[in-house]
Specification:
Elements (H helix, E strand, L loop, with lengths): L7 H9 L5 H19 L2 E4 L1 H17 L10 E5 L26 H8 L3 E6 L11 E2 L3 E2 L15 H8 L6 E5 L5 H7 L2 E4 L23 E6 L2 H11 L26 E4 L10 H16 L3 E3 L8 H16 L5 H12 L8 H9 L3 H24 L2 E5 L17 E4 L2 E4 L4 H8 L5 E8 L5 E7 L5 H12 L13
Parallel strand pairs: 2-3, 2-6, 9-10, 9-11
Antiparallel strand pairs: 1-3, 4-5, 6-8, 7-8, 7-14, 11-15, 12-13, 14-15
Helix pairs in contact: 2-3, 5-6, 7-14, 9-11, 9-12, 9-13, 10-11
């Protein structure tokens, strides 16, 4: 495999050993963007001058000291939603085209402290709210496996930058699958951390100071070893709490699959899953069992799936309410007042959630706590849960209004927003989830598996992911990019 597809750990070692310099590595990454990104459109902003100055400094430092960070000289990009001095933070919105931050996001600072060279930002959907990465400001990002298909969203540009060999690590974010969905569509890895353990400072639009419920920042990579390194770099306690608190996560429950108790849920009545994805998930379960894992293929979720999804939608859409203008909120409130009491359609759920009272939100939050307790009991019997990352492989670009979209699952049409289920199931209760590639379907499109761990046991999810990765081909470069 070419230099572009070395792991971040391997690349850092090559630079440390003097095989190449940080400047040479950066020049190679930028040349690759120049070569491929006219078609892919993954990198929406570049800070070449800043990155080159940093690379030169790192090369000088390497010669003077052996005290180097774990990513010394490694080129990478970050999702557009992060503040990066020298590039605007727009979230794909034209009205924020001149929103240049004066301070880097926390994640940017942490990766640079680890030695990384950040040379740009990757494309997103408008407001980070779609499973396509397309906006009026920067245009559409396409999937390197098939340019007619979506790379996912909202960290779609991030997944493409990894799959195309531009970047060795990525910083993304997730509230509705925005890390996990693009990883699944593009054949890379992502980790959605336990809520609250990775600081989100500098990942906001405007002057918002209150962290969003459910939303997390997390790493993306081409392999689990790099994913773990990215997670360790990004996680921790910052701000006033750091005076008294520190983050000490428990180790993985098992060093290997031997003795690991794995539950498998490949289907749900709330959101259908393509047969090819479900079958491959079951094949992985067989492979885990062959390695000594105790696999329960008939495991039942510890919560009612429909009720859990309803709670997720209510709490998710509550997060979106502060971004409404006064006029938009007034329109939604009027619409909510006209809804029939028995209207449980998705649009009705969204309208109610956007205009709910604190009392309504509190009841939903109470239900979440009950679900969290049920999940805690579930993970007394199991160490990890394997579920789909999404119901289908990457689908064709769709320019119709989101509310009118449908997707095809084995020839049957399901609602566009039904896809939220497999992300929200674990997201709403703050559980860590890791997505890794599990091969391609018959048409050659990547498929990912979602590995869910217990609350605050990110290392268990990552450890199981690493063990399963060894049972697969892992990351495979898209045709024409190797």
């Amino acid at each position: 495999m070419s230099m572009a597809y070395r792991s971040a750990v391997e690349m850092a070692k090559a630079i440390a050993d003097g095989e190449m310099g940080a400047v040479e590595a950066l020049e190679a990454a930028l040349a690759r963007v120049d070569r491929f990104d006219g078609t892919l459109n993954a990198v929406c902003n570049r800070v070449d001058e800043r990155a080159m100055e940093r690379a030169r400094t790192l090369d000088q430092t390497r010669l003077r000291t052996a005290d180097r960070g774990p990513l010394h000289g490694v080129p990478m990009t970050v999702k557009e939603g992060y503040d990066l001095v020298g590039a605007p933070t727009t979230w794909g919105r034209s009205d924020f085209a001149h929103n240049y931050p004066s301070v880097d996001a926390h994640a940017v600072r942490r990766f640079e402290q680890a030695g990384a060279v950040i040379f740009g930002k990757t494309n997103v959907p408008t407001d980070l709210r779609d499973w396509q990465s397309d906006n009026a400001l920067y245009g559409r990002t396409v999937n390197p496996w098939d340019a007619t298909r979506t790379p996912g969203g909202s960290s779609g540009g991030s997944a493409v930058a990894l799959a195309a060999g531009y970047s060795y690590l990525e910083a993304g974010s997730d509230i509705g699958g925005s890390l996990r969905n693009p990883a699944h569509y593009c054949g890379v890895c992502a980790h959605k951390p336990t809520y609250g353990i990775v600081p989100t400072l500098g990942h906001a639009l405007g002057d918002k100071l209150v962290p969003s419920d459910i939303s997390v920042c997390g790493p993306m990579a081409r392999g689990v070893e790099d994913l773990l390194l990215g997670f360790e770099i990004m996680s921790g306690v910052v701000g006033p709490e750091a005076l008294a608190w520190q983050l000490t996560l428990p180790p993985a429950r098992h060093p290997s699959l031997a003795g690991c108790r794995i539950a498998v849920v490949a289907h749900s009545a709330v959101c259908a899953v393509e047969t090819s994805i479900a079958q491959r998930l079951c094949e992985l379960a067989d492979a885990c069992e062959a390695q000594g894992a105790k696999v329960d293929r008939g495991a039942a979720l510890p919560v009612d799936a429909r009720s859990a999804h309803r709670v997720y939608v209510r709490l998710l859409r509550a997060v979106m309410a502060p971004s409404l203008t006064d006029r938009e909120f007034e329109i939604q409130s009027t619409s909510a007042s006209r809804l029939d009491d028995d209207d449980d359609s998705y649009p009705a759920q969204v309208t109610r959630a956007l205009t709910q009272t604190y009392r309504d939100w509190f009841y939903a939050a109470e239900e979440r706590v009950r679900m969290q307790r049920s999940w805690a009991e579930f993970f007394e019997s199991y160490d990890a849960l394997l579920i789909p990352a999404a119901p289908t492989t990457a689908w064709m670009h769709d320019t119709t209004d989101k509310d009118d979209r449908v997707i095809q699952v084995d020839g049957a049409r399901i609602g566009y927003y039904d896809q939220l289920f497999w992300a929200g199931l674990t997201g709403v209760v703050y559980l860590p989830s890791t997505v890794i590639p599990m091969g391609c379907d018959a048409s050659g499109l990547p498929m990912g598996v979602q590995i869910v761990g217990p609350y605050l046991e990110d290392h268990t999810a990552l450890s199981v992911a690493r063990a399963i990765e060894n049972l697969t081909d892992g990351f495979v470069a898209p045709p024409g990019f190797g």
